[in-house]
Amino acid sequence: MKAFPIIVSSPSGAGKTTIVDAVLKRNKTVSRVITATTRAPRTGEKDGVDYLFWSIKQFEQAIKKGQMLEWAQVHTHYYGIPKKSVDSLMKKGICPILVIDVQGARTVKAQYPDAAMVFIVPPSLKELKKRILGRNDNTQDIELRLETAKKEMLELDHYDYALLNDDLEEAVDNMAGIIAAEQCRVSRQDLKIKNLK
Question: Could you tell me what percentage of the chain is helix, strand and coil, using 3-state DSSP and rounding each to the nearest 5?
Fold first, then answer.
């Protein structure tokens, strides 16, 4: 199988990280690409595991050197994917999963046209607000995230799959199914399989 990127986006709080982490435990042919960010770690987050926690200076130097596949400033912080993180996985035949926002998804899809794109949809904005409140983010941030969520939902038509996350176990099963189906596409098979007699 030819490795390809799997792009996963959703509004903040819709469950993308939880779903991806559960799928990674089941499927060893995929690996999460660790995003670099300038925001502070949340409780329990580890550098190099959950995110690459960089200083603003480090991040801006990586941008200047052309080392970022995509990057954006979101909610007053930088977020982005180092190019080498994606390319090194694909060289090993592993599909990189990129958990990124809609802007980053467009940028990555332009560079990797064969990428599969999945948008995780929250059950409702009311439920999304409840989930964000559960993270203990400050109130100003919550309103900003909800407004951003409404704008992000308008990008849904640019994705290959819409995955409703109203039941976590079902959402994880569906994500695993999407990945399995994408990996079985004829266009992703190597010549050895295609040329069997």
Answer: 45, 20, 35
